[in-house]
Amino acid sequence: MLEIKGLHKSFANTGVLKGIDFRVDKGEVVAVIGQSGSGKTTLLRCMSFLERADSGYMIFDNCSCDMTAVSKKEIRELRMHMGFVFQSFNLFSNMTVFQNVMEGLVTARGMDKEKARKKATEVLEKVGMINRAEFYPGELSGGQQQRVAIARSIAPDPEIILFDEPTSALDPELTGEVLDVMKTLAKEGTTMVVVTHEMGFAKEVASRVVFMENGTVVEEGTAGEIFSAPKNERTRQFLSIS
Amino acid sequence: MSSRLIEILTSSFFKILIPGIKITIPLTVLSFAVSLVLGLLLALVQVAELRFIKDIARFYIWIFRGTPLIVQLFIIFFGLPSLGITLEAFPSAVMAFGMNLGAYNAEVFRAAILAIPKGQMEAAYMIGLNYPMTMMRVVLPQSFPIAFPSLFNNLIGLLKDTSLASSITVIELFTTAQQIAARTYEPFALYCEAALIYLIFSTALTWLQDWIERKLKWKSGGSEDAGNQRTA
Ligand SMILES: Nc1ncnc2c1ncn2[C@@H]1O[C@H](COP(=O)(O)OP(=O)(O)OP(=O)(O)O)[C@@H](O)[C@H]1O
Ligand SMILES: [Mg+2]
Q: Which residues of B111-124 are buried (b: 16+ CB within 10 A; e: fewer)?
């Protein structure tokens, strides 16, 4: 489904990603865990070309390409099949919940308004936000905003959705509602990469867990393997403190 | 106050007001329209980081903010004819005021565009919008309400600056006051009267501003301060 090889990225001569190999198969939920600053966000941002890799190779969709040489047009084409859920929600504050969800369908994909309306209703029902459809983002709680952001990203039926710590900006009592929505998506077979500090979620939902440290993938395996029998010393340390 | 003075003031009020309505206001409106279009273009090419065009925009702003408005007015009206470009007084004034204020409005628009959180642009890209769509649908609609008070401030400044057009033979509000003052030998009274008429115009603009700002606030549904989250 999506594969990355030899991904390198540095900021101002500091290596942040130092040769990442990463693959996600269809229907998998991959949890990416690791300490703060280990490069998890940067990995997702390079995969979605919000950040340009210094080197690396990517296979996704129709593209089998050098990540440094992809054109703007190809990037936009890739993003048509890729969803991204941000830590800080990033809803469009000039649009209602409904408009936020319809935007990618109508403006980006030229979908017919009526059809888009139906699709938006469907995904908003799924995340339990249909009764807030006419609200503006500023009128919603953080958890509600994030559920709308998830609806917005799933509306165009992407092949894969990248989540960057979707619950980290939320008050503890609001994380549950967002994680529940993500669990539903996982059950439906949505392919997901989830950067998270929620170990409970990773244990329960992830089909595979990737542990990153200092810009490299130190260990990966099924949730069972990583949480009950981590092979790597660093992974053990990380899991014992978190 | 002598009855002669009262007579002069009352009879001149409409003589000054009429060129104010017929010349000063159209001059202000047209120049402002030019400055908005120009300012928006100059801001967009800067934030889009269009390499060479961006430098031209910076150069333009440097020139027009760095030299006096009246000098620009004189260059366009008295100077350009020697290059073979002759414009009438009114279009010269529209051009000078529009180009001058365009440089200032460019900075207002640029700041208002940069004030929109970058995360919203990234979210727009990730749902498949390209750069022009992101600007049109997400960034600019949020930038206008931010830019609005400063733009309006510039508009009120422009209204008063149009009096400089009197120096290039445009018969507007202030020119008329000057002519009547010279004829009646009552400069104090007549210039105060001209000031009063400018004040009436700018007060009307202030009301207009308040009214539009209320509309803008209402339309954005209180979404401007995302920090003020209501749990429903
Ligand atoms: N735009 C940037 N410019 C410079 N340095 C950056 C930039 N983005 C990230 N970094 C650096 O790269 C390193 C990895 O950052 P990244 O955000 O990927 O970590 P992370 O694993 O997501 O951490 P966290 O769990 O805190 O979100 C950090 O040291 C960070 O300071
Ligand atoms: Mg991060």
A: ebbeebeeebbbbb
Is some CB atom of chain B closer than 8 A to the CB atom of A149?
Answer: yes
Cβ(B8)–Cβ(B183) below 8 Å: no
Residues in chain B: 232
Interface confidence (ipTM) of the complex: 0.94
**pLDDT tens sequence across B23-54:** 999 999 999 999 999 999 999 999 998 889 99
Q: What is the Å distance from ligand 1's center to A56 Cα?
A: 18
For an interface test with B, give the residue of A86, A91, A107 to mutate (most B CBs within 10 A): A107
CATH number of the domain enclosing B166: 1.10.3720.10
Closest residue, chain A, to B145 (C-alpha): A94
- What's the pTM? 0.89
pLDDT digits (tens, 9 = 90+) for B97-151: 999 999 999 999 999 999 999 999 999 999 999 999 999 999 999 999 999 999 9
Q: How many domains does chain B have?
A: 1
Tokens of B16: 């000054």
| Distance in angstroms (rounded) separating the CA atoms of residues B220 and A39 | 37
Q: How far is A196 from chain B (nearest CA, A)?
A: 19
Q: How many CB pairs under 8 A join A and B?
A: 102
Which residue of B129, B142, B225 is in closest CB contact with A94? B142
The pLDDT tens digits of the residues spanning B148-206 come to 999 999 999 999 999 999 999 999 999 999 999 999 999 999 999 999 999 999 999 99
Q: Is residue B172 a part of any domain in this protein?
A: yes
In a domain, B225, yes or no: no
User: B59 lies in which domain range?
Assistant: 3-220
Q: Which chain B residues are Cβ-neighbours of A91 within 8 angstroms?
A: 120, 123
Encoded tokens for A39: 């490069």
